[in-house]
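yo, P2Y receptor family member 8 is done. seq:
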Amino acid sequence: MTGNLSSTKLDNATLSLFQNVNTSIIISVIYMIVTAINLVANGLSMWLLIFRTTPKTPSIIFMINLTLTDMALGTALPFQIAYQLKGYHWDLGSNMCSFLTLVFYTNMYCSILTMMAISIDRYLGIIRPMQFKQTRERKSIAVIGCLFMWGLVLSVLYPLMTTDLTFEIQDLRIITCFDVLKKDMLPSVQAWVIFIFGMVFLLFIFPFCVTTFCYISVIRKLARDSKTAQKKRAIRLAIFVLLVFTICFAPNNILLLVHSVLRLFYNKSAYMAYKLSLCFSCVNSCLDPFIYYFASKEFRQKLRQIMNLQSQSSADSMKMEHKENLYSS
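structure:
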């Protein structure tokens, strides 16, 4: 959603994007599917994590934080769907535009930082177990870590909270929301470079490197361990998390950097590709419950208990129906 920088007139590529009905429909359908899966899967995950999972380990606290951001995205996406289906016309005002844009990007970068925190927690628990167990204030550290993540993300995204992100395109008679940014949103090109650097390098590349290091170290450690079940789960978790980074987050942030450089210094655009990659960045909110399944033994046990209860209740109901049929006959 980081849009084209504009002062007066838009380029033809940007105008063609706003007039491309097929692209708008594709993006809307993807958002609809993501919204449905997001709210169901993360609603169940939140219920399990808060009410059914004990004790509240640091990993569980991080997962609750991740689920919260995912559900916030799920509630914000319907507004984006309506915006797309109206032909990129925003009619809810500038404040609502800024708020929902902030929710959108906060979800992405809080998810990245939380995955990094989970990887660090697993790294300390497996690579340095003695030091890890001696830390008595682990829960407090996890809570402080979550608050720090939110503070860091909101600090980097602060310009989104203080700027009118709507832009009127008189030729098309539409008002866009964060698809076209005014050049005077930030005072200079240097300020734009710092803003983009913070989003791409501080909130994506650095967490990605830390997460990769932690999981590779865990895999190497467990490869020498006789606990094959633990090793397989750790390897699956590492592969899954790295796939989420690669598929959901990497294209979006790389294209954000490419588009920003092209727009700031060469007056060119890669916005069409960036807009499509943004859809796939939302898919992470549907995949996070699978991370919980691999990362938390408690979460797996509670989910399996629920599935067993449901299967048992289904079997009991079938037995009752069979008895009723025998009685009636």
